[in-house]
Structures are given as C-alpha cells and as structure tokens.
Design goal:
Elements lengths: L9 E6 L5 E3 L1 H9 L9 H11 L3 E8 L7 E10 L2 E8 L8 H41 L4 H27 L8 E4 H15 L4 E7 L5 E4 L1 H18 L5 E12 L14 E10 L6 H6 L17 H11 L3 E7 L3 E9 L2
Parallel strand pairs: 7-9
Antiparallel strand pairs: 1-2, 1-5, 3-4, 4-5, 6-8, 9-10, 10-12, 11-12
Helix pairs in contact: 3-4, 4-6, 5-6, 6-8
Length: 342
C-alpha cells in the first residue's frame, strides 16, 4: 500500500508550557534558516502569532529561501491541541523548481474565497425575500392544490439553495468551525440522490445503508462536499463508459485501522464507515501518493482544480476521523471514511 505520510513533507510540535520544539529534519533546517517568508517572519514568529491569536486552526503559505537550494513553497497547517501546537508542511513547489504558477493559483483561490463570502451573503438575502413571498402565497392560496404544489416546490428549491450557500461559505473557510450532531445517513441519501440525477445514465449507482442510526458530530456541509467529491472522482474514473459506483454506510466497532492515511492514534472505538467504490481505471502506487497534494490532478487542464481530494482529507481530519484507500489498475478504487460515532 505504501506509506501515505509521504504526502506530508514536514511535521513538528511545539509545547506552549515547555517551550520545546520537536520536528523532523526538514523543520530543523527551516528553523535554522531564520527568516522564511517574503515579509521576513521565521517559523517561530508564525507559531507565536498563531498562539497569540487564540485561533484553533491556521493555514498559511510559507516561502523558504534555503541557503544551499532554490526557494521552496510550503502549505502550512497549524492546530492547537491542549497545550501543544502541531504543524504539518506540504511542499507545493513544482518539480522544476518554478513555483510561480502554484503561488498565483493560491492567491486566486484566496481571492475567490473572499469574493464567495460577499456574494453568498447577498444571495442569501435575496433568497429570503423569495421564501417570504412563497409563504405568503401559501397562506393566500391554501385552498388551491395546484398552486400549493408549485409553491412547495419553490420552498424545497430554496432549502437546497441555502444548503449550497453553506457549502460555499465552508469552502471560503469563514464558517467551517460550526459543529452539530446530525445523521450521516440523511446526508448520504441527499447527496447520492442529487448525484444520481446528474450522472451518466450508463453508470449504475448502488447505495447500501445498514439500519442503524449514524449520528456524528461535525459539519454536514463539509461532509456533503467530501462525499460528492468522492462520487465525482469515481464517475470520472470511468471516463463516460459503463460502470458501477457502490456507496455504503455501516456502523462498526474497530480496534485498529490499517493503512490509515491520517495515522490517528488511539483509533479504537465505534465508527460510521462510509465507503465509495468504483469499477474505474484504478490508480498506480505513484498516483495514490500524489492525489492528496494541493493542485495535483490527472484530469485535463480546465477539468479539475486538484483541490477535491485535499478537501476530503482535510474534512475527515477536521472530524477526528480516519481514511483508507484501495486501488488496482483496471479493477477500480475504494475509499473508506471512518467517522467517530456520537
């Protein structure tokens, strides 16, 4: 299966009480380099500013001018866990050493996030007006079955639109920290129903849910996006030909999760396990190691952003879950998402 920690280039911990740093060779090199970003911050400065901010999560781009090598660009993620700050670094520099295109892409994605937030708030206000009008029509025409049928359709469409707005806001990282208890089975049913209506008619979609209630704590919009990303990739893996996508959900008690991409410690417990399996082209070992890196894509230019799978992995990490992948060339691929049961 291979070691999927290869997608993480650097890892470190900083004890807020002890003041001690623990990290791998890359982090040690960066700490020794001193100034690391275009504005002159060191890694210590970034971590200390994060601590002072009171935030629980930080994502930032770092540009490191190594003395013996060319500049390298890293995506940094920091998480506050009790009195410990944990960080990971993923190199985003292209193989040729020219990171200009990737950096421009990052800047465009950040700008898109800001633009998305403003647009969706305006859209939400307009949808509220439409919804209010629909409710008035229901009151005035409650005895007209045909009109009630159409206004109920408007209300359902508004609900779907508001759900989409929440997903856009989550994408822009403005409201992604909100957690609630929800039934994963309901989310899966909604997503697969929508996906089935928009998918190639030559692709069979089979859904299997056990009879248990799948209550988890988290963000339903993020989970919806993750499921949709996996289903979309499964569809694209079949390249428009005949095939099958199997989506299943089961509640299981596990003692360990072999080949967990997130390498979660103390993973024993009860999980809702969501599996997405396809009969597509499958992936080589090399591609499996790359798919979670930001902007990596095997699709044609303009057909994919390379952000879908990193978003899935980030979502599962955010929910304290685990993730595994099995793939064989010419046979297909199966992703398993382990989400802690509530």
């Amino acid at each position: 299966m291979g070691d999927f920690l290869e997608l993480i280039d650097g890892y470190f911990e900083y004890g807020m009480t002890s003041g001690e740093w623990r990290g791998d060779e890359l982090v040690t090199d960066i700490l020794n380099e001193g100034k690391i970003t275009e504005i002159g911050d060191s890694l210590e400065d970034v971590v200390f500013s994060f601590i002072a901010s009171g935030k629980s999560v930080l994502r930032e781009e770092l540009v490191v001018p190594f003395a013996r090598e060319s500049w390298k660009t890293f995506a940094l993620k920091l998480e506050r866990q009790s009195d410990m700050i944990r960080g990971v670094l993923i190199e985003m520099t292209s193989a040729g050493g020219n990171n200009l295109e990737e950096r421009h892409h990052i800047q465009k994605m950040a700008a898109l996030g800001e633009l998305t937030t403003g647009v969706v708030h305006d859209l939400r206000n307009q949808l509220a007006c439409i919804g209010g009008s629909a409710e008035l029509i229901k009151i005035l025409c409650s005895d007209n079955g045909q009109i009630m049928k159409y206004t109920n359709g408007i209300s359902r469409t508004l609900d779907n639109s508001n759900s989409l707005i929440e997903q856009l806001l989550d994408f822009s990282h403005k409201e992604s920290d909100s957690k609630q208890i929800f039934n994963l089975a309901n989310i899966l049913d909604d997503v697969t129903s929508l996906f089935g209506r928009t998918s190639n008619r030559y692709i069979e979609i089979v859904t299997s849910l056990d009879k248990q209630e799948h209550r988890i704590v988290g963000n339903p919009s993020l989970i919806s996006s993750a499921i949709l990303n996996l289903c979309t990739n499964a569809r694209d893996a079949m390249d428009g030909s005949h095939g099958k996508i199997e989506v299943s959900l089961a509640r299981e008690t596990v003692t360990e999760i072999p080949n967990d991409l997130l390498k979660q410690e103390n993973c024993a417990g009860k999980y809702s396990i969501l599996r997405v399996k396809d009969t597509g082209c499958g992936m080589t070992a090399d591609i499996k190691k790359e798919i979670f890196k930001p902007f990596f894509t095997t699709k044609e230019k303009g057909s994919g952003t390379g952000m879908g799978m990193p978003q899935v992995l980030e979502t599962i990490s955010y929910h304290g879950g685990s993730m595994t992948i099995k793939s064989e060339i010419g046979v297909g691929t199966e992703f398993a998402l382990y989400l802690p049961a509530s």
